[in-house]
Amino acid sequence: MPGVEKPVVAAFDFDGTLTHRDTLVPFLLQVVGLGHFVRNAFVLLPTLSAYGLRIIRNDVAKQRVLSRFFAGMHIDTLRGKATEFAEHQLPGLIRPEAARRFAWHKQQGHRCIVISASLEIYVRPWALSKGFDDVLATQLETRADGSVSGNLLGENCFGSEKVKRLDALLGARSSYILYAYGDSRGDKELLSVADHAYYRKMN
C-alpha cells in the first residue's frame, strides 16, 4: 500500500562473513578428536583433492565428509557436541566488524537471518543465543532410531539454494528490503537479489 514502509531483512552468510574462518573443521575436531580426525582426513584425501580441483561439487564432497565422520552417531550425542561448540568455540571465531554490523541491524529493528551452507546443528544454537531471528542452514538426516545417516536432509544451503530458502521463509522478494552479506561464490545468487549487497565488507 502507498505510504507503508516495507520491512527490512538482513541476511548474513556464516563462514568467512560472520566468522573469520571455516567452522566445519574445528567442529569435526570437537566431535571426534584429533586422532580420529587425522585418520578420517587421510581416507578422505582423494575427495578433498577432487573438490579442491573442482572435479566434484561442493555438496558431493560435503556429503562424503559428513558420512565419514557422523554416520551411525546418535543425534543427541552430536547435538550435545554442537551445543558445546556453539557456546565455547564459536564466540572466538566471530569477526568483530560483523558483530557490530549485526548489532546495528538489530538496533534498527530489522529481521536478521543467518543463511549458510554450514551445519544448522551448531549454527542455530549460536545464532539464536545472539538474537538472530531465523537460521537457514544445511541439515543432517537422521534415521528412525535417532542415528545420523551421514546424508543431508534436503539440499546443501549453497548458491541458488540460499535464495530458495529465503523465498520459502519470507515469500515474494518484492515484499521486503534485503541487505545481504557474503564472502564467496556460494553467496553469489543471494547477493544478486539483494537491494543492498555487501561482498567481503560490512558497510
Instruction: Enter the CATH topology name.
Output: Rossmann fold
Helix content: 40-55%
User: Average pLDDT value?
Assistant: 94
* Structural class designation: alpha/beta
CATH architecture verdict = 3-Layer(aba) Sandwich
Overview of the molecule:
- This protein is of the alpha/beta class.
- It has one domain (8-199): 3-Layer(aba) Sandwich (Rossmann fold).
- It has 8 helices and 6 strands.
- The chain has helices at 24-43, 45-52, 58-70, 75-88, 96-107, 120-130, 160-170, 188-192, and strands at 8-12, 111-119, 134-142, 148-153, 177-182, 196-199.
- The chain has a 6-stranded mixed beta sheet with strand order 4-3-2-1-5-6.
- Strand 3 (134-142) and strand 4 (148-153) form a beta hairpin.
- Helix 2 packs antiparallel against helix 3 and helix 4 (75-88) packs across helix 6 (120-130).
- The chain is globular, with a radius of gyration of 17 Å.
- The mean pLDDT is 94.
